[in-house]
Amino acid sequence: MLGKLLGIELDRRPSTGGTAFVTGVLERAGEEGLARLWESPSGFAGRRPEVDAPGLWLARTELPDQL
Q1: Is the pTM of this model over 0.85?
Q2: H or E segment at 13?
Q3: Which of 2, 6, 14, 23 makes a 20 to 30 Å CA pair with 32?
Q4: CA pair distance 55, 29, nearest whole angstrom
């Protein structure tokens, strides 16, 4: 309704994609894994493939001492 009032189209995909990403990370790595989002700017999951497949993001942000 707000979108119609303002004359814009609101897309729920980013919201649902973000929720699915967080759920996927929590399932695979728990809260400690999710905390990587805040460790550095490179931790942010801004890449669409990583948002769609949280395992890709976890692999990219894996800490060296966890290898």
Answers
A1: no
A2: helix 13-34
A3: 14
A4: 9
